[in-house]
Amino acid sequence: MKTIYLVRHCQAAGQEPEALLTEKGEVQARELATFFAGSPIDRIISSPYHRAVATIQPLAQERRIVVEEDTRLVERVLSGVPREDWFERLRDTFDDLTLELEGGESSLTAINRANSLLTEILADVHKNIVLVSHGCLLALLMKSIDNRFGFHDWEKLSNPDVFKLTCHLETRELVRIWS
Fold first, then answer.
1. Structural domain harbouring 63
2. Are residues 42 and 62 in the same domain?
3. Is residue 103 part of a domain?
4. CA-CA distances (angstroms) from residue 138 to 62, 107, 130, 155, 158?
5. Per-residue pLDDT tens for 131-167?
6. How far, in Å, CA of 85 to CA of 98, rounded?
7. Omega within 30 of 0 (cis) for the link into 160
């Protein structure tokens, strides 16, 4: 059995890759380390975006685990051009996984990217892994695990947020554990 914790980053000052955590986000990152106090962790993999790495750094330092950065965990780019209707179009991409906006990445492409890492993790020797990423990518990954997870679930995600994915030989159980 493997346990994979899917963590959405703490509150950040922006969406760009180098966006810092806010003061509140820094407090949340320390709270997240406390949250995991009773949980065994063997490996931590994060999006290389600053806000994701900073989210898990307190836990990594406390456990003396090196944070591995993996570009497969970066946020999904909806469109390469600014869109006033981004919210509606994002909803559309949860209904049509192949929909690809100009300069963007389809949901299916993002799912496949994240799932390639998940496949590697499932074949790995580590049993308790933390993945740190971003709201949309995590929502799509969770949709690929449980098709009932959709756009409205993405809307309910918090910063931070934590889901526990328990993988047995043939089954996967996904449950939100952050409150």
1. 1-7+30-75
2. yes
3. yes
4. 25, 11, 12, 12, 12
5. 999 999 999 999 999 999 999 999 999 999 999 999 9
6. 18
7. yes
